[in-house]
Amino acid sequence: MLLDVKSLTKRFGGLTAVSNVAFGIERGEIIGIFGPNGSGKTTTLSLIAGILKPTSGVILWKGNDISTLSPFEVAQQGLVKTFQNPQLFPELTVVEHMRIACHLHIKRELGINRLRTLIGGMPVGLDRLLEQKIDQVLALCRLSSQRNEQAAALSYGGEKMLGVAMGMLCEPELLLLDEPASGLGHDEIANLDAVLRDLKSHGVTLCIIDHKVGFLGRLADRSIALHHGAVIASGKTSDVLADESVVAAYLGKKHA
């Protein structure tokens, strides 16, 4: 098993945001995590990514406990998280953002000090190799035609896709996506769906949280439904969506 989450709990003072959550992810899967607002989706993803630390429980990556690692150390292991609203520099172009994102990839793969790459230049030949990698990822994420556009000129869907592309430069084994379909129109969701399927075909395992159950229903191999911080159903996505407790959580008990 690639990722094994065991009895994960997170409390903020007297509030329990995640309660005894447990699930696993196998290599090559697309896993969906969904639930109403406040169900614990983003907190769960942030715990896996090392942004938050669990109150109790463990997160095993290839059998090793990563529960106490920093976000950077988690990313070095091969788990990379995207954000619902990527923090971009409006005046920088798409390709300039990609070059910035290369520095994490350099340190992880080659052990080169990031400061040296920033102030001392790239080792001979490495800059050309990284430009090739950028071109490949931009093509995979359907951003090649926008490589020289400033971030300020991108649509919301384009901003989100740039966040995905920047994450892909780290060559993740597991990509954690936070609400990638939120705020997108029909055509943008169709494009996102196609890109994520392509990422899977290139060997990337995906864990996606979203409140758009139709989007996850088409894409995810398996899903976990959360409500009030706890798992209420898990398994094949179509079965989870039909589960009475899930229907009740979304629509109210009278619909279950």
TrEMBL record:
Transmembrane segments: none annotated. The keyword Phosphoprotein does not apply. Residues 3-253 form the ABC transporter domain. Gene3D superfamilies: P-loop containing nucleotide triphosphate hydrolases. It holds the Pfam family ABC_tran. One of its GO terms (molecular function) is ATP hydrolysis activity. PROSITE patterns: ABC_TRANSPORTER_2. GO terms for cellular component: plasma membrane. This is ABC-type branched-subunit amino acid transport system ATPase component. SMART domains: AAA (SM00382). Involved in beta-(1-->2)glucan export. Transmembrane domains (TMD) form a pore in the inner membrane and the ATP-binding domain (NBD) is responsible for energy generation. The keyword Transport applies. Keywords: ATP-binding, Nucleotide-binding, Transport. CDD domains: ABC_Mj1267_LivG_branched. It comes from the Bacteria.
